[in-house]
Amino acid sequence: MSEPSDRGPELPGVEGAIAVDADGVVVREGRLRRILSFDEALLVSVQRFRGPCRTVIARALTAVGDGKGWTAIGVACFATSTPRGRHLGLRIGAGTILATLLSQALKRSLTRARPDSAIAGFEALAANPDRFSFPSGHTSAAFGVAVALADEPYGIGPCALLLAVGIGLSRVYLGAHYPLDVGAGALLGVFAGLAARLLVS
């Protein structure tokens, strides 16, 4: 009978040897595996910056960046009953929906496990909305909205971008996503936001 091996979760189609180091981080061989191992190590290193105040801020940012948060902001824009408010509401809705569709399609294709499932002893500070990690849906939606609002007046664009960056960082800080998940989510969000601007001109 063979000895059980310490194997971490894999992305489909990724081959190579796997081991687990003393910190519970999966160490992989091969170029892609080295990237994923570095991704995990970077996530673990971020956790040393956790503190009560930072955790409150990160959780607030994550709450704003979920589906309910964007829905509330979009409804508030429509509630102004002004052409500008309706325009903003439509762009927020389009950016969020397109980014969510793209990120969920990729998540269910690649099925990368969440950090608290993949790294031994790792503790996330946020509840996971689903089982899959890559890419970050919160980050995709946030950057989708930020790009959709990039050309809006009164500093709305820069504020939306700052919020998107904060939401992305909060997902890594809380341990809900790897840094690579957030980077990919931001990229998807850019495409979704550009599409939203074409749809709602």
Care to describe what's here?
By secondary structure, the chain is mostly helical. It has one domain (51-199): Up-down Bundle (Vanadium-containing Chloroperoxidase, domain 1). It is built from eight helices and two strands. It has helices spanning 31-46, 52-64, 67-79, 83-110, 115-118, 137-148, 156-173, 179-199, and strands at residues 18-20, 26-28. A two-stranded antiparallel ribbon has the order 1-2. Strand 1 and strand 2 form a beta hairpin. Helix 2 (52-64) packs across helix 7, helix 6 runs parallel beside helix 8 and helix 7 (156-173) packs antiparallel against helix 8. The N and C termini lie far apart (65 Å). Residues 1-18 have low confidence and may be disordered.
List keywords for this structure.
single chain; PAP2/HPO; transmembrane helix; mainly alpha; 2 strands; 201 residues; 8 helices; PAP2/HPO_sf; Vanadium-containing Chloroperoxidase, domain 1; two-stranded antiparallel sheet
CATH fold field value: Vanadium-containing Chloroperoxidase, domain 1
User: Helix count, per DSSP?
Assistant: 8
Report the CATH superfamily. Phosphatidic acid phosphatase type 2/haloperoxidase
Structural category: mainly alpha
Q: Strand count, sense and closure of the main sheet?
A: 2 strands, antiparallel
**How do the strands of the widest beta sheet line up side by side?**
1-2
In total, how many beta strands? Answer: 2
Roughly what is the average pLDDT, rounded to an integer?
A: 86
- Pick out the low-confidence regions: 1-18
Query: How much helix is in the residues?
Result: 55-70%
Gap between N and C termini:
65 Å
Task: Write the element-wise H/E pattern from the N-terminal end onward.
Answer: EEHHHHHHHH
Give the DSSP E fraction (strand runs of 2 or more residues): under 5%
- Round the Cα radius of gyration to an integer and report it: 18 Å
Number of spatially distinct domains: 1
Note the overall shape.
Answer: globular
Membrane topology: Multi-pass membrane protein
Domain Phosphatidic acid phosphatase type 2/haloperoxidase: 87-197
Keywords: Cell membrane, Hydrolase, Membrane, Transmembrane, Transmembrane helix
Subcellular location: Cell membrane
